Amino acid sequence: MRIRFVKALKREEGVTLIELLAVLSLMGIILGVISTTIFFGFRSYNQVSIENRLREESDVLMSSIITELYAFAPDRVYASADGKGFEMFHVDELGNQSTADSVRVVINSAGQLEIQKAEILNSTTPPADPYQATRITNGSIVPALSSITLEGEKAGGFDYYTTGLININLVLTLGSGTGQSQLQLESRFGF
After folding, report:
1. Which of 91, 136, 146, 176 is in Cβ range 3.0-4.6 Å of 75 for a Cys bridge?
2. Which top-level group of life is the source organism from (predicted)?
3. Over 60: is that where the pLDDT of 14 sits?
């Protein structure tokens, strides 16, 4: 019995080259599938986090516009000629429009939403930044694709609206080059 054990220990058998190549090929395939799955997961996670950040930014922008619209409660609303905003005014008892009491909401050419209040702009000591602006961090509104338009009937043939809908179409972008993500958001608010 002891002799058989000693002979088994002395026998020098190894792995053939074909067996070694087969194992290495299988390991390469398995590692390739695992790494592809991991990288796809990271890329998907990054894309979802960017989209969530854009949605959060768009929610802030929309809530800023609707808050300003309902808090100001305008008597007259004028559409901007370029379709990038609107201006709201109050009217006194005689029907005169007050330029000292107005709010302008506009998408500027730099891709920022500006909410401009006349009381701040006409102040004797205006702040350094005269706009109450909502800015997007690491991204911007695409001005060429975004619009803020009015729809409804104009009052008595004048250029202003007393009631109607504000249609907001914002295209937000985040990132640059091939890693750029866009989100399109459409909303309608009545006034």
Report:
1. 91
2. Bacteria
3. yes
